[in-house]
Design goal:
69 residues; alpha+beta; two-stranded antiparallel ribbon; 2 strands; 23% strand
């Protein structure tokens, strides 16, 4: 019998359920923490604007300010 079918016939034990529950709980708890720690977007200084440019390697964010006359 192939190893894969033997593994699928084994019942899930209590230890397995606890492990899966712990992983799901960590994912649920740490996702909002990671989002909050990532920070938000800050407004550019007065007289400046944010320019987002797409490129083949990814996007770039630039803060462009007008020079004083």
């Amino acid at each position: 019998m192939p190893a894969e079918s033997e593994r699928l016939r084994r019942r899930i034990r209590r230890r397995d359920v606890w492990f899966i529950g712990a992983v799901v709980l960590l994912a649920v708890v740490l996702t909002p923490v990671a989002v909050l720690m990532s920070g938000g977007r800050h407004a550019p200084p007065a007289g400046c604007k944010t320019v987002i440019r797409a490129g083949f390697m990814g996007g770039e964010t630039h803060v462009v300010c007008a020079s004083a006359p």
